[in-house]
């Protein structure tokens, strides 16, 4: 499975920027400094919020989201910053699954076997009627089903969405946009105040 990507550019409110420029006209490179610092702090805060917003809608561990994220920082020469995510689809077992361990079905009729109940999103649970939770010799545990390939029975593991896919869902992107916009306004106002005090303004 190939990696998928997600890139979130930190938006900059034109009206707020124009106000900051008026406040910092007397400070050499004051606006460039304020904008770069505010953008980078917003990007770091947005990275944290991405984990929160994703977990609010998907039954995924914070670590599985966080480890895919990184920030491409803004500089005084390039005023844009991005929060990026790259990752492969997660094994279905990384989401909310019941049972959480392999259970032997030896001697149990197929109709009586316990089938996995899976919640990828927090408001939806699906029963995988032809699947089962199994442990491999390597110690890996997952949700599998049997397939026939070239006349042989093989186990295939089920996978859920990747972190980039979850971040692209409408509910998550809307939440990120709102918090990132508010964070940028607060950070830029703080940086303008800090620079003015530093320069005796």
Task: Describe the structure in your own words.
- The chain is α+β, with helices and mostly antiparallel strands and 201 residues long.
- The protein has two domains: 4-88 and 161-198; 92-157, no CATH class.
- Helix content is 38%, strand content 21%.
- The protein contains five helices and nine strands, in the order βαααββββββββαα.
- It has helices at residues 14-23, 30-57, 62-66, 163-167, 170-198, and strands spanning 4-9, 69-72, 82-87, 96-98, 117-119, 126-127, 132-135, 141-149, 152-157.
- The model has no long low-confidence stretch (mean pLDDT 89).
Compact description:
The protein is an alpha+beta fold and 201 residues long. Helices cover 38% and strands 21% of the residues.
The rounded Rg comes to 24 Å
The number of strands is 9
Helix content class:
25-40%
Strand order of the largest sheet: 1-3-2
* β-strand amount: 15-25%
Largest sheet: 3 strands, antiparallel
Keywords:
single chain; 201 residues; 2 domains; 3-stranded antiparallel sheet; 5 helices; 38% helix
Please render the helix and strand layout as text:
Elements: E1 4-9, H1 14-23, H2 30-57, H3 62-66, E2 69-72, E3 82-87, E4 96-98, E5 117-119, E6 126-127, E7 132-135, E8 141-149, E9 152-157, H4 163-167, H5 170-198
Antiparallel strand pairs: 1-3, 2-3, 4-5, 5-6, 7-8, 8-9
Helix pairs in contact: 1-5, 2-5
């Amino acid at each position: 499975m190939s990696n998928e990507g997600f890139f979130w550019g930190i938006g900059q409110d034109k009206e707020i920027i124009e106000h900051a420029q008026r406040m910092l006209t007397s400070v050499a490179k004051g606006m460039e400094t304020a904008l770069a610092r505010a953008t980078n702090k917003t990007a770091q805060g947005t990275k944290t919020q991405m984990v929160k917003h994703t977990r609010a809608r998907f039954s995924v561990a914070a670590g599985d989201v966080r480890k895919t994220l990184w920030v491409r920082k803004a500089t005084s020469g390039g005023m844009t910053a991005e929060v990026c995510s790259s990752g492969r689809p997660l094994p279905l077992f990384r989401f909310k699954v019941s049972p959480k361990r392999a259970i032997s079905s030896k001697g149990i009729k197929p109709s009586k076997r316990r089938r996995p109940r899976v919640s990828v999103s927090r408001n939806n649970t699906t029963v995988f009627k032809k699947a089962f939770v199994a442990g491999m010799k390597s110690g890996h545990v997952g949700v599998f089903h049997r397939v026939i390939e070239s006349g042989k029975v093989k186990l295939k593991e089920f996978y859920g969405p990747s972190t980039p896919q979850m971040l692209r869902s409408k509910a998550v992107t809307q939440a990120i946009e709102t918090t990132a916009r508010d964070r940028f306004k607060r950070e830029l106002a703080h940086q303008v105040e800090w620079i003015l005090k530093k320069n005796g303004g």
